[in-house]
Design a protein that fits this description.
262 residues
């Protein structure tokens, strides 16, 4: 940010995006001016090409976020913060082995008491933490911090995917917003320990190899549905609700794809 400020500040970036037609200049700002009027008054310099690049000649062809589809994210909702990945991608592909947890609390307990169970190229899956399941879609900052520490201490790569969300401070191979969420019977609910998980950024997909077989997908879905029905229309792994507000959240939450609101 110090370097950006030295080259003219954020208004340089805003003007470049405005000139490229990527921002709405008629939007009003807190000064009472439109965004276009405010930038015109500030009259920022052009991008210097070293710290701030132009739209026509960007620093990289793709941004710091990827939105993934695939059989684990049929809503095309899964988000990977590429800028935070510290390793594990070979030719833009990560292949890992699923290690499944039905709550963040279970994962944190294992990281605290059994760190030895985590191995190189594990893909940790934390589910039933989505908008309906948690309810409320918590962020996994504590989990990612501990996983990052574990990886650095042991010199291994461990990924994490979840139907919950992440803080902007999270680092590592982390994928959030996987949807539909587990509480609603999304494919993330059907993954089992040891399944092969493939993250392919060449095609922006998140897949479980086993679930590519329709027979396996159908059998696991049926087994999940039996547990769901036997528990009165809710999977037993979902979080407890002890207030009317949390219950309202559970009953009316929309997918993370649409903002995870009520």
């Amino acid at each position: 940010m110090v370097d950006i400020d030295d080259k003219g500040g954020v208004q340089v970036i805003v003007k470049e995006l405005l000139d490229a037609g990527l921002l709405n200049g008629e939007t009003h700002t807190c000064t009472g001016e439109t965004l276009a009027q405010q930038v015109a008054r500030l009259d920022p310099p052009a991008p210097d090409g070293t710290v701030i690049y132009t739209v026509k000649n960007p620093y990289k062809p793709t941004g710091g976020l990827r939105v993934l589809g695939g059989n684990l994210s049929p809503e095309f909702s899964a988000v990977l913060k590429l800028a935070g990945v510290e390793g594990g991608l070979e030719n833009n592909i990560f292949v890992g082995k699923a290690r499944v947890f039905d709550s963040e609390a279970d994962l944190l307990h294992s990281l605290e008491s059994q760190p030895h169970i985590f191995e190189n190229h594990d893909m940790i899956i934390v589910r039933y933490e989505g908008p309906s399941g948690a309810p409320g879609m918590p962020e996994m900052l504590d989990s990612t911090s501990r996983i990052t520490t574990l990886c650095r201490e042991k010199g291994i790569i461990v990924g994490l995917m979840t139907d919950a969300r992440f803080s902007g401070g999270s680092v590592g191979l982390v994928i959030g917003h996987v949807g539909p969420e587990a509480a609603l019977g999304g494919p993330i609910a059907l993954v089992e320990d040891g399944d092969e998980i493939v993250v392919d950024l060449n095609v922006n997909e998140l897949n479980c190899t086993k679930l590519a077989d329709p027979a396996i997908m159908s059998a696991r879905k049926s087994a999940w549905q039996k547990i769901f029905d036997a528990n009165g229309g809710a999977h037993p792994s979902i979080g407890k609700v002890d207030t009317r507000l949390l219950n309202r959240m559970r009953q009316s939450a929309v997918s993370a794809n649409f903002g995870a609101g009520m």
